[in-house]
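WP5 quarterly update. Target: 7-cyano-7-deazaguanine synthase. Source organism: Galdieria sulphuraria. Length: 258 aa.
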Amino acid sequence: MKRLLSFRSIPSGLKTFAYFCLKKSSFSTSSSAVVLLSGGADSATTLAVAVRDGFEVHALSFDYGQRHRHELVCASRVAERFGCREHRIAQVDLRVFGGSALTSSDCDVPKDRQDRSSSIPVTYVPARNTLFLSYALAYAEVIGATDIFIGANAVDYSGYPDCRPAYFRVFERLASLGTKAGVEQGVEYKIHAPLLHLSKTEIIQLGIRLGVDFGMTHSCYDPQESGRPCGHCDACCIRQEAFHKLGFARDPALERFQ
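Structure tokens (predicted):
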């Protein structure tokens, strides 16, 4: 009869290593992921990708003083549709800094821009992705997750500095150096940006395949009080162009406002 090896019978020199491995396994075998969910087309598709890949999703949204706060209503709908384990909304008032058309009343949202590739537009929110990813990292460490999803896209936008592959690689390194889990347990965090190199048309095609109802998403930067998209900001124009390419008569988000 074989004798089972107990922790007590392990030589003392190996106990620390064994304890380290047991603690680390709570992260390495976790199927949970934190998904940054704005309520827009990109984040909804990203959430669907995380679900497809077998993750139990903890969605995280932000009320940061954005003029398009209606997106939070849509984020809640999307989170419920995909059966998220949790959906939390963090309060971070970026209006105290301003510096963006999305958080300051002193700056208008650009409309009907013909050239969207010339420079970083005023809709860029300073350090927003860094802030959001930091919150997501804290959330992930608390629940024992190592995977964070973000719907960043570098194709249809004007070179936002926090939507580049190099930025995400550096943040992964920072996450391992700046957390208790990374320092004490050797946990390595992974930032997933599955839409990074896709066009808006490709994102919508992917979302449709994964069951995203784009009628319940919101991307407009400057909506009416009812939440109806303006139809003229960069986000609206990019969405409309993509849906038209796919044969849609109009953006499904408009159907709620007929």
